[in-house]
Recover the amino acids of this structure.
């Protein structure tokens, strides 16, 4: 499991493990005769047989006649070929390979109105063991309120790696469970920065949720980048 540097409410920090305990089922798919099925990528269309290309070639009215009299949507030489070693490229509206691409971020209001367009921001991971530990901000949000305010996209279970970190995390989980609240945690020197799990990753606001059952505990790190707001 990966490790993370986490501090508590009295600014004591420790290296602990985190990861997901969810195991995706891996069913075995078989054909009607009992053979194991294999997923493959095949060519369905080429740049010359896309809807846009066909409309540009035949026009809206001529395309129907072309489809009836022939098969312009099928490239007989390419259709069905097995595809391997794919690479992502950007294309222009004219279906030409684009070079020197600059990406923008579109920010929308709660009602769907576009608020601003800005250059895509590059992000760097800030959860490395060599960096500043993730800090408690002191901002507690009741658990039920947080569940209605945010859409949590990822969840990780924070786990101890020895007896000392067990006590460290158990105390965290117990305090949060007794308060029935979630604690906002952040990165950076002041603990106000969003959390970025990997270089180039999405910035998230992070919350710690605690549960305790006897001497057992669960400390869950929940990540969100979407706040739920009502539309006036």
């Amino acid at each position: 499991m990966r490790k993370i540097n986490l501090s508590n409410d009295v600014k004591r920090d420790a290296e602990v493990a985190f990861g997901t305990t969810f195991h995706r089922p891996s069913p075995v798919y078989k054909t009607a005769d009992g053979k194991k099925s294999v997923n493959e990528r095949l060519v369905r269309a080429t740049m010359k047989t896309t809807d846009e290309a066909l409309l540009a070639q035949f026009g809206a009215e001529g395309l129907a006649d072309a489809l009836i009299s022939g098969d312009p949507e099928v490239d007989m030489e390419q259709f069905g070929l097995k595809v391997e070693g794919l690479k992502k490229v950007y294309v222009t509206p004219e279906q030409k390979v684009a070079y020197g691409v600059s990406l923008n971020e579109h920010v929308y209001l709660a009602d769907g109105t576009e608020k601003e367009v800005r250059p895509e921001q590059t992000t760097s991971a800030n959860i490395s063991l060599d960096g500043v530990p993730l800090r408690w901000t002191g901002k507690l949000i009741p658990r039920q309120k947080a569940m209605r305010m945010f859409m949590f996209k990822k969840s990780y279970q924070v786990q101890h790696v020895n007896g000392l970190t067990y006590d460290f995390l158990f105390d965290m989980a117990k305090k949060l469970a007794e308060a029935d609240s979630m604690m906002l945690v952040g990165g950076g020197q002041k603990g106000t920065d969003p959390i970025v799990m990997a270089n180039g990753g999405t910035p998230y606001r992070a919350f710690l949720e605690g549960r305790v059952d006897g001497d057992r505990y669960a400390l869950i790190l929940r990540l969100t980048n979407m706040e739920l707001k009502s539309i006036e």
About this structure: The mean pLDDT is 88. The first strand starts at residue 2 and ends at 7. Strands lie at 2-7, 13-19, 104-108, 114-119, 135-142, 150-159, 181-186, 205-213, 216-227.
